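Changelog note: in this version the structure field was regenerated for every chain. One regenerated record is shown below for reference.
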Amino acid sequence: MKSKKSSNVGTLYLKTYNLLQVFGWSYILYKFLNTDLPIMLEGNVWENIKWLVIIFQHAAVLEVVHILIGLVKSNPILTTIQIASRVIVVTGILSAIPYDYVLLSLGVPLLITAWSITEIIRYLYYFMHLNDFVPYFLTWLRYTLFIILYPLGVTGELLCIYAAVKYASSYPEAWSYNLPNSWNFIFSYYFILVCLMISYVPLFPQMYLHMFSQRRKILGSHTSKKKYD
């Protein structure tokens, strides 16, 4: 059984973590929206916010740790899938392929828009929940905007992966380990990217429908409570 002191420390840590993520993604969105028009037209959006996205998106890996050590109650598999897809896009694609290929991808502004708005609302919701005060409007945003933002973000991710596929098809040796070699082992960056794109076919509908299920459960309970208050 957890002591009250350890519980308070855990809650304080979670409040700090969520609030930092709110500030981080708010700053990312601010920098994105304030990108100079010439830079935007040239597609140089990623370089303007690159390290901020890397830092705050990788910090989300801690959410899996929070679940595993019992700080947060959530589905570890769904959380891992959601976070892993983004980390792979940031590290394995946007940070891995040449600058010119990133610039040409419309996926970057799409995913930055969807990710930042989603995360600002999500982390603010978690923070307010830890303070036992969540305005209904914030709950409504949390479980409604995903209807547009989730497909928008996935579209951005797929466009970025497609940009990496084009690069890998032009340079088969990039991030690959081909035969013959002393380990008798092969790793194809191109093949991994294609498999990653295909994985969205079964995973996206499941995740999207799960979020609709959560929406019915959360907003439905709010509606019922208001009827009987």
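Spot check on this record: Residues 43 and 103 are 5 Å apart (CA to CA). Confidence is low (pLDDT under 50) at residues 1-5.
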